[in-house]
Design a protein that fits this description.
By secondary structure, the chain is an alpha/beta fold. It is elongated, with a radius of gyration of 27 Å.
Length: about 425
């Protein structure tokens, strides 16, 4: 009987090529577990598969992926070809599925799995370095594969280091998949996702978009939110651009200010964008040829090229302290980001202060990474930030603050 060919979402196609180590990382609802479960069932119908389905902790069989694999067997119409017992599943071609927890295994006890040619580690973000070290040498039969699925938590987790440190190795393949990569994303999950997006955006990024958990005091920006809004027809737009270098992205953002709120409503973002393709990239942002764009002055030849292509681009004024001043200026506003500006959302979430590696103390120093959109936003607001302050005819009752705004009068709780 020929192997079944169920539909596979595009994001998972790289995992169909034989590799010793396969990883699928990302958020909830992406279908990672469904993909690996279905692939094991499909493989078992075509050849001899002995699969160990593993997780760090498995108190009972109910903690395992056994039920999911059984559901896949039935969904594919193959229940008559498999025998499902309380603890294992047997199938055609003398195939076998077992389910184990890794936490209590030792280098000696794990040898019982040496005859298996498939391993699937679910919830791999919880796997310890010890479990990883004793498990990976065990599955060494010709053509054997180890598969890992997980929702990332921290860059320091063993599974993250395992795949990040082996990028480019032909034995490794790892994909990122989120709910948007799942064409069968359930409506009930969509409602849960939208609730998290509206109420707890940090949770949304971690749970649904597979980002590292970023809560804590390291975050530079805490004065922002994601919210859909309609741009007013009379908005005065402020455009900012940052040029890509090698693997860095070329970025254009559009923003406008109402009162003390900075709205970001459009972005264009591309990694490895050739200069000849930059005009087309910028044209994706409405009004980019009508309004002045302030751009990184480090690439005067790119500024000149874009001017010749019909863009009103001027170089940003940079200098000592300009980054810190620009960041503080952005922090003095409430920032509202339109949901379509995904890279702006990513950077406002991840932009952090440095940490002392010896003491774990958060330093008052900006970590110069994940800030290309933020740089563009700084440039966009530079004209406003550097505008000369005018002296009011009637002085305010209290001295102005750092940005020239009158300070509010202090009111005692006792007299309020």
């Amino acid at each position: 009987m020929s192997i079944l060919s169920p539909k596979v979402p595009r994001a998972f196609v790289p995992l169909l090529t034989p590799r010793r180590y396969k990883g699928a990382r990302g958020g909830r609802g992406s279908g990672k577990s469904h993909f690996f479960a279905e692939q094991l069932v499909v493989e078992a119908t075509a050849s001899h598969i002995r699969a160990a389905c593993l997780r760090e902790v498995q108190v009972s069989i109910k903690d395992s992926v056994k039920q999911l694999i059984e559901d896949k067997i039935r969904a594919l119409g193959l229940a008559h070809r498999f025998k499902m017992t309380e603890t294992e599943i047997r199938g055609p071609n003398d195939s076998l599925f077992i389910f184990r927890g890794l936490q209590n295994h030792t280098a000696t006890s794990i040898k019982s799995l040496e005859g298996f040619n498939r391993a699937w580690v679910e919830e791999a973000q919880t796997i310890s370095q010890k479990s990883l070290d004793i498990t990976t040498p065990t599955f060494r039969a010709p053509g054997s594969e180890m598969r890992f699925s997980w929702n990332p938590f921290s860059a320091g987790d063993p599974i993250e280091r395992f795949f990040n440190e082996n990028q480019g190795d032909p034995d490794f393949v790892c994909i990122k998949a989120n709910w948007s990569d799942n064409p069968w994303f359930p409506e009930d999950l969509r409602k849960d996702m939208l609730r998290d997006q509206a109420r707890d955006f940090d949770k949304f990024l971690h749970v649904w978009r597979g980002e590292y958990s970023r809560r804590g005091e390291r975050a530079v920006f805490k004065n922002w939110k994601v919210e859909a809004f309609d741009t007013p027809e009379d908005a005065v737009f402020r455009f900012g651009a940052d040029w890509g270098f090698s693997v860095d992205p070329t970025v254009l953002v559009r923003a406008y200010i109402v009162g003390r709120t900075l709205y970001v409503d459009h972005e264009a973002y591309a990694v490895g964008c050739e200069i000849d393709n930059t005009p087309a990239l910028f044209d994706k942002v409405p009004g980019s040829r009508r309004w002045t764009i302030r751009a990184d002055s480090a690439r005067p030849e790119t500024v000149s090229y874009m001017q010749r292509k019909g863009f009103r681009i001027v170089p940003a004024v940079k200098g000592p302290g300009s980054v810190e001043d620009g960041i503080e200026f952005l922090k003095s506003y409430d920032i509202v980001v339109h949901p379509r500006c995904l890279h702006t959302i990513d950077e406002l979430t991840s932009y952090s202060f440095k940490v002392d590696s010896k003491t774990d103390e958060i330093l008052p120093v900006l970590d110069d990474k994940n800030n290309h959109v933020i740089d563009a936003l700084r440039y966009a607001c530079e004209g406003l930030r550097r505008a000369p302050k005018t002296t009011p005819a009637t002085p305010s009752r209290t001295p102005p603050d750092l940005w020239g705004r009158p300070k509010r009068e202090e009111t005692s709780w006792k007299t309020a």
